[in-house]
Write a sequence for this structure.
């Protein structure tokens, strides 16, 4: 039997699902291509990896890439034997058909090496330890004297001073040598199983399930589920259905909400969803008019867009802190069309001071400010913490916020919500013809990615086009709130539950 070569990433895929590994090896053409947001996630990983290398001055970067594996192996061997480099980046090792490229191997003062796996995360996960374990198995089996191993993550407690990155504080070492070494005996057996499976001409028969998304979303899920017949209203549409209850239903062969028994324990909202699906019509189950009665004119509608750099850029920020760069505000006065104001920060310095000033001007001093979810409240609170001289005015704005999400969730359910109370699920149902399909940007994650790309672009036309797209998207969000509030007002005039 010809031994099938594995890489570290393929080994991790095999731990998740043998079918995923089989496709990655034999039918990579079946994978779903990563979207713009996922590509940005990959690039964030590369950025964190490059920054981590600065912790090891004088380290040698193994230059040969995946197209030149024999050369990478030889370069790694010769640099180690030369004995001068304090660390190697992307060092290549192979054992029994398993090839790994180690993020960092660091030469220890007393002899031997430390293996370091770099992750663009802020906490240690078991998958990271397994990742280190397969590398440890290969490196030690290939003859490298590895005496220590660690996973390097970003430290959420690090606060950037706005001047110089303190790399020692930015990163956090998680010692994993003992734990990874404990997996060593199982790695060899798992490698043999994977290689035997890959030697077969036919793919393993594995049904889709929860494993498709743990620890990572599988790029072959769309292919594996292409012929799946989905239930009309599956049990995953039950809001906040915990794992134990879901497993009980699955074990009983129940996948449709309408088939959930009357005596099965559900929360109040879950019971309303079941009733709504069984009756096939919307349910008005709360006092919408009473909730909206707390609104005070002029009614305003606020939305923020934020981006979250993994490597903090601005004073007072931590890794992955959400930094607001754009707001949209519609103001509605009785008998007149809503008036729109926005502000987008177009340079790559800290956007928060100017954005806060423009928001304080635009929000005025009176009237309720409608939002959807608690996100805007959180952004305002963090803005106040970052800008103490504006904190009082920002707290005043926060005190006027009125969240429309609980009004919907606690008052109305429609089968076409399909278990989601996101505004993109609710709005097309309550305000027909409303949506985002005509926009170049239609979700917040894409907005954050495009904004970061625009700041990095040297093309003024591209920057201006992206900035216009961002403004259009954020304005649509607050206009959606205007339409949603009107729709809720109409529902509030209907007979109660």
């Amino acid at each position: 039997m010809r031994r099938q070569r594995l890489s570290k990433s393929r080994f991790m895929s095999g731990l998740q699902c043998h079918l995923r590994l089989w496709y990655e090896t034999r039918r990579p053409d079946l994978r779903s291509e990563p979207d713009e947001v996922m590509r940005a996630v990959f690039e964030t990983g590369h950025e964190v990896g490059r920054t981590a290398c600065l912790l090891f001055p004088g380290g040698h970067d193994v230059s040969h890439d995946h197209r030149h594996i024999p050369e990478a192996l030889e370069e790694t061997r010769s640099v180690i034997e030369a004995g001068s480099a304090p660390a190697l980046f992307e060092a290549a090792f192979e054992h029994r058909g398993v090839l790994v490229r180690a993020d960092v191997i660091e030469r220890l003062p007393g002899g031997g090496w430390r293996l370091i796996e770099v992750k663009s995360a802020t906490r240690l996960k078991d998958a990271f330890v397994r990742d280190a374990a397969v590398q440890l198995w290969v490196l030690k089996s290939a003859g490298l004297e590895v005496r220590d191993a660690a996973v390097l993550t970003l430290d959420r407690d690090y606060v950037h001073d706005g001047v110089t990155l303190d790399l020692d504080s930015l990163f956090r070492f998680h010692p994993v040598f003992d734990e990874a070494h404990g997996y060593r005996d199982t790695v060899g057996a798992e490698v043999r199983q994977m290689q035997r499976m890959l030697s077969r001409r036919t793919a393993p028969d594995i049904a889709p399930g929860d494993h498709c998304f743990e620890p990572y979303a599988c790029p072959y899920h769309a292919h594996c589920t292409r012929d799946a017949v989905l239930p009309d209203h599956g049990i995953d549409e039950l809001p906040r259905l915990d794992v134990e209850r879901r497993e009980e239903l699955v074990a009983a062969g129940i996948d449709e909400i309408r088939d959930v028994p009357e005596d099965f324990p559900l929360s109040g909202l879950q019971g309303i969803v079941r009733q709504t699906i069984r009756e096939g019509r919307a349910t008005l189950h709360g006092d919408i008019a009473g909730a909206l009665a707390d609104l005070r004119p002029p009614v305003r509608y606020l939305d923020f867009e934020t981006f979250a750099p993994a490597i903090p850029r601005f004073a007072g920020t931590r890794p992955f802190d959400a930094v607001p760069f754009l707001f949209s505000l519609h103001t509605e006065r009785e008998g007149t069309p809503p008036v729109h104001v926005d502000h987008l920060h177009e340079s790559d310095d800290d956007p928060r001071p100017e954005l806060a000033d423009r928001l304080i001007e635009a929000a005025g001093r009176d009237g309720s400010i409608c939002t959807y979810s608690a996100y805007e409240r959180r952004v305002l609170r963090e803005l106040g913490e970052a800008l103490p001289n504006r904190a009082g005015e920002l707290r005043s704005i926060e005190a006027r916020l009125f969240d429309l999400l609980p009004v919907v969730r606690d008052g109305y359910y429609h089968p076409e919500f399909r278990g989601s109370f996101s505004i993109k699920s609710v709005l097309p149902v309550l305000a027909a013809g409303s949506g985002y399909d005509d926009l170049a940007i239609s979700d917040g994650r894409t907005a954050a990615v495009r904004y970061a790309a625009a700041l990095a672009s040297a093309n003024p036309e591209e920057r201006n086009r992206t900035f216009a797209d961002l403004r259009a998207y954020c304005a649509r969000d607050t206009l959606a709130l205007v339409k949603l509030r009107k729709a809720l007002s109409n529902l509030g005039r209907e007979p109660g539950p």
